[in-house]
Design the sequence.
């Protein structure tokens, strides 16, 4: 859902990604996993979506195995510890003063290549020994889904009865912890792509 919201809110990102897909994949076939290495902007969008709006904002709880000290504070053995992924992913000392903005370019170098292909570019999967073991499956699933959606259609805000776009609010997409849907129109880029 956050990917869809980002594409609706940032149509220039969507258009750039679709241009990259058209240049690499063309119009006669769907994106594949072998295309991924030639689609750095799509990879940057994936990293940025997971950084911008992590699926698990407070990470998973862990238990402290032995007494630990941090900045003079004792964290006793058996304490529950939860990493605040949201805060880390929005830390201005890591992601600059615009950390709350959706900006895939932060994951690209000056030549539009991924800065560090081996890095997730975010802390949404955790870190260290207890990093999510399924992150590669998740990334591959998200990549192929995002690439296929962007290859096949243009996402734009739903229109009201007068034909004016209803721009979704980033912070207005939750209500009492329940994620709400984004009012989106899915428009095929071409009639040929619908048939592929």
Sequence:
């Amino acid at each position: 859902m956050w990917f869809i919201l980002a594409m609706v809110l940032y149509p220039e990102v969507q258009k750039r990604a679709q241009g990259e897909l058209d240049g690499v994949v063309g119009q006669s076939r769907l994106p594949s996993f072998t295309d991924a290495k030639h689609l750095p902007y799509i990879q940057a969008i994936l990293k940025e979506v997971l950084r911008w709006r992590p699926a698990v904002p407070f990470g998973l709880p862990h238990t402290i195995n032995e007494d630990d000290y941090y900045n003079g504070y004792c964290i006793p053995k058996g304490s529950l510890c939860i990493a605040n992924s949201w805060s880390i992913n929005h830390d201005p000392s890591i992601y600059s003063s615009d950390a709350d903005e959706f900006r895939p370019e932060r994951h690209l170098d000056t030549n539009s290549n991924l800065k560090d292909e081996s890095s997730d570019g975010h802390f949404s999967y955790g870190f260290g020994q207890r990093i999510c073991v399924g992150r590669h499956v998740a990334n591959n699933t998200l990549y192929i889904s995002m690439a296929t959606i962007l290859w096949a259609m243009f996402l734009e805000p739903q229109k009201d009865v007068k034909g004016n776009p209803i721009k979704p609010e980033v912070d207005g997409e939750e209500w009492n912890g329940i994620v709400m849907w984004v009012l989106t129109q899915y428009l095929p880029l071409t009639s040929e792509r619908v048939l592929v």
Q: What stands out?
A: The chain has seven helices and eight strands. The radius of gyration is 19 Å.
